[in-house]
Amino acid sequence: MNHKKTVAISIPTGIGAEIGGFAGDGGKIARKFAKHFNVLTHPNVVNGGILSAITDDILYLEGYFFDEFFKGNIFINPLDKYEENVIGVIFDASIPKNILNVHINTISALKEVQGLNIPFVEITDEPVGVEFFIKNNLSTGVINNENTILRAAKKLIEKGASAIAVVCYFNDDADDINYEQGIGIDPIGGVEAVISHLIAKEFMVPTAHAPAFSSIDIYETVCNSKVSSENISSTYLPCVLMGLNRAPLINKKERNFLQNKDIEALIVPYNALGSAAVIGAYNNNIKIMTVKNKTHGLICCDDMGLNGIMEYNNYDECLQALLKG
To answer: Which CATH architecture has domain 6-80+250-324?
Structure first.
């Protein structure tokens, strides 16, 4: 870790955040804060399909770990400057061969161009069976065959993987016109979190998910800029692998690593305060700063009975307040 203080930026997935609820469109916010602080954040803030906003000053922490960290249940170990994770990749057995080949080529490209350490690939022994839907303005879903994912992850870890990327098969019903126009809710974001949480909780290793679809066509009409990064590539895997490359490791015992009390502030949308991370931060006397980043969430300070939380009109105003101390 460098000498800079650390702040955390949370933009919960699957609730249609105006900034950060789409395709890596929160990345520019994370990078702006990272000029002055180390930034702890979760994958959907910086993941943008073929693009990633990740930098050496951004700590890429899966959402389950993000919550557990602020509750005080885990500590995280940022990698040293030249350290990298050994990444294993899980592919859903349902992915058609031609689509799988494109993803294999994506891995090969990142190994050749960036030198990422991705030596292991495992195809699940059974189809995963992902279902997704939007309920009560929240993106969510279910996994019909969790055990096949866990078996594949176990094999990768036994081979030496220290981080896991997982690619599950989604049918093309994921298309959503409102999302494409930058005003809706990511239809698959919620179930992607369910998938990554499953592996993270079981194996305590950095984890992130990328979807695979039956089509590899690149979007040919102009879309909203918030989702454009997902429409210039035939896979969503590059950002996941770039994020996991230097994702911090997880530790439950050693207290000489980064702890929640080391965080200068947790920054969240003003009406998305119902997360375990927010409650954990509040209970552990960690400063919470809210920003008027509109979401489909309906949980504000008054609803939670939270006191002493500052609200800012935008992220620039929040950043300036932090810099002033």
So the answer is: 3-Layer(aba) Sandwich (3.40)
Cβ–Cβ < 8 Å for 280, 8: no
Does the domain formed by 87-248 have CATH 3.40.1130? no
Q: Stretch 9-37: mean pLDDT, rounded?
A: 92
- How far is 64 from 67, CA to CA, in rounded Å? 5
Could you report the per-residue pLDDT of 175-209, keeping only the tens digit for each? 666 566 666 777 788 899 999 999 999 999 999 99
Its pTM stands at 0.93
